[in-house]
Amino acid sequence: MPVRVQAEDFDLTREIAALRAVQGARNAKIGAIAAFIGTVRDLNEVEGEQRAVLQMTLEHYPGMTERALEKIVLDAKGRWNIFDALVIHRIGSLGPLDQIVLVVTIGAHRGEAFAACEFIMDYLKTQAPFWKKEATPAGARWVEARAGDDSAAARWEPAVKP
Amino acid sequence: MTIKLLFFAGLREAVGRSSEALALPPGVADVGALRAHLAARGGVWAEHFAPARNLRAAVNQDMANAGVAVRSGDEVAFFPPVTGG
């Protein structure tokens, strides 16, 4: 159950290969690998207005962040029949087009792999202690949490196996 | 009888520090009471720890609501709602 918080970029192909290797490189029980990559956009909506984003800085709570991500992955494994999951979240200075977050889930079937992947992202958005500060032409601003992120996470409650 | 306080993101900038050691004040036994104690410092503290502010807390690195107990030796963090991903 690898969880990593790092400044460095990541490579999807290499990460999937490593995750499969943990299960045994020739494990033919795996039938589904779902991956989500979040990337930095060059604009953001603030109070309904589109604002340019030049660069962003990711702050986190060392220790708690890893702990929170591990709890989210454990929760996902309790809800769906997946073999393993990987979460990588970058910190520090990032620019438009940069990769920011990676979630990979592997299992026997696509339904559970897709659902677990989406669940991990939704929970990460509201439970993992990361904060974005954007540099815009009008100055730097802390990104405000979106109500939509809370409702996205809330639709997975209560913890029942589908 | 001290706790370690941590502040993150916009709150860290507003109060001008990322951490401090605090002697646990008498009568402060949970997150809600600690938040009220910090608000009572006045100035930026009163502004940013006001009840109307959307603030989150963690005790010993677990998300905590106002009713979660705070004891000597604990690490208590306050921060704005998270915005990762």
Topology:
The complex is a heterodimer of chains A (162) and B (85).
Chain A: E1 3-6, H1 12-22, E2 32-39, E3 43-46, E4 49-52, E5 55-60, H2 64-79, E6 82-90, E7 92-94, E8 99-107, H3 110-127, E9 130-136, E10 139-142, H4 147-154
Helix pairs in contact in A: 2-3, 3-4
Chain B: E1 2-7, H1 9-15, E2 19-23, H2 31-39, H3 43-48, E3 56-59, E4 62-64, E5 75-79
Parallel strand pairs in B: 1-5
Antiparallel strand pairs in B: 1-2, 3-4, 3-5
Structure description:
The complex is a heterodimer of chains A (162) and B (85). Chain A is of the alpha+beta class and 162 residues long. Chain A has helices at 12-22, 64-79, 110-127, 147-154, and strands at residues 3-6, 32-39, 43-46, 49-52, 55-60, 82-90, 92-94, 99-107, 130-136, 139-142. Chain A is built from four helices and ten strands, in the order βαββββαβββαββα. Chain B has helices at 9-15, 31-39, 43-48, and strands spanning 2-7, 19-23, 56-59, 62-64, 75-79. Chain B has a five-stranded mixed β-sheet with strand order 2-1-5-3-4. The radius of gyration of chain B is 12 Å and the shape is globular. The interface between A and B is medium-sized, with 28 and 17 residues.
Properties at a glance:
heterodimer; A: 162 residues; alpha+beta; 4-stranded antiparallel beta sheet; 4 helices; 10 strands; 36% strand; B: 85 residues; 5-stranded mixed beta sheet; 3 helices; 5 strands; 27% strand
Strand order of the largest sheet of chain B: 2-1-5-3-4
Structural class of chain A: alpha+beta
Could you say which structural class the secondary elements and strand pairing of chain B correspond to?
Answer: alpha+beta
Number of helices of chain A: 4
- Give the neighbour order of strands across the main sheet of chain A: 1-6-8-2
Work out the strand percent of chain A: 35-45%
Q: Outline the biggest β-sheet of chain A.
A: 4 strands, mixed
Largest sheet of chain B: 5 strands, mixed
Indicate the mean pLDDT of chain A: 93
Q: How many extended strands of chain A?
A: 10
- Tell me the number of helical segments of chain B per DSSP (H or I, 4 or more residues long): 3
Number of DSSP E strands of chain B:
5
SSE order of chain A? EHEEEEHEEEHEEH
Q: Spell the H/E element sequence of chain B.
A: EHEHHEEE
